[in-house]
Amino acid sequence: MDLQKAFETNRETWNQKVDVHAQSDFYNLKAFKEGATSLNRYELDALGDVKGKNILHLQCHFGQDTLSLARMGAKCVGVDLSNKGIALAQQLNNELDLDAQFVCCNVLDTSKHIKEQFDIVFTSYGVIGWLPDLQPWALMIAERLKPGGFFYMVEFHPIAWMFDYTVNPPVMKYGYNQEEAIYEEYEGTYAEGDTPQMTSKEYGWNHGLSEVIQSLKDAGLQLEFFREHNGSPYNVFPNLVKNTEGLYELPHGLYPLVYEVKFVKG
Q1: Res 197: pLDDT
Q2: CA 143, CA 205: separation in Å to the nearest integer?
Q3: Average pLDDT across the chain, whole number
Q4: Does 248 reside within a domain?
Q5: Which helix (H) or strand (E) holds 154?
Q6: Which CATH number belongs to the domain containing residue 219 in this structure?
Q7: pLDDT score for 1
Q8: Which of these, 41, 2, 102, 83, lies nearest to 248 by C-alpha position?
Q9: Could you give the CA distance from residue 63 to residue 68 in angstroms, rounded to a whole number?
Q10: Residue 200 falls inside a structural domain
């Protein structure tokens, strides 16, 4: 297929999402500007004390997590495909008097634009599904890490992406390791309420856990941990229930919604 067409379609959709998401309760930009962090428990626990660390944040949207890390004392660079997302991230950085930097590019092209190596490479929640092949992604991550540095990702579980959520109830439709692109066109975004403000047109790819882990190992990184969790910080799938820890999970608990991986560069 024409990957450039797919990437451009996704970029146009994410450009539209920026305006919608910046106004949404989901991203709560007002609270963020007043000092609230956009980071969740999983990533805060895994990243630890980031003061003085150099962090590369991949697929940063409009930069809230990047800037949250900057507030914690890290020196951050955020990367995203959406030029509108990067423009808003830079605006927020200036408004909040922080020192993060932002680069607009396809995440697979990161090493063409950034030559620095980092203590930490970080990415989270709904990121690898936009990539047709994880091998160049993993190699880029290894290139951008300093020796002794680590890569951390918290991501939605691949089982969750086997369902078609454009119908109600959702139907299991897509392969766990499906190589063919999945194209979906639907009204609204995950961050909107009951009144959609845009049409999302998206190309995505499903990646199973073995593909994720093996691609990073093949890039020369060493697995430190892999964890699966029933609870998601985000109520982005249908019919989830809030548990006693304030996370959202399936009422029947048939499969986890989130997983974490941490890899170290030797």
Answers
A1: 87
A2: 23
A3: 96
A4: yes
A5: strand 145-156
A6: 3.40.50.150
A7: 86
A8: 41
A9: 8
A10: no
Distance CA 24, CA 185 (A): 21
Task: Say which residues have a Cβ less than 8 Å from residue 194's Cβ, sequence separation at least 6.
Answer: none
Q: Is residue 139 a part of any domain in this protein?
A: yes
Token digits for 176?
């766990």
Question: How far apart, in whole angstroms, are the C-alpha atoms of residue 215 and residue 140?
Answer: 11
Helix, strand, or coil (residue 152): strand
Structural element, H or E, at residue 263 = strand 258-265
pTM score of the predicted model: 0.97
Amino acid at residue number 136: P
Angle between helices 209-218 and 134-144 (to 10 degrees): 40
pLDDT in the model for residue 117: 98
Q: What pLDDT score was predicted for residue 121?
A: 99
Q: What is the pLDDT at residue 196?
A: 83
DSSP state of 232: B
Q: 140: domain range?
A: 3-157+208-265
The answer to whether residue 224 is domain-embedded is: yes
Q: Check: CB of residue 174 under 8 Å from CB of residue 162.
A: yes
Residues of the chain with pLDDT under 70: 194
Domain count, the chain: 1
Distance CA 252, CA 163 (A): 16
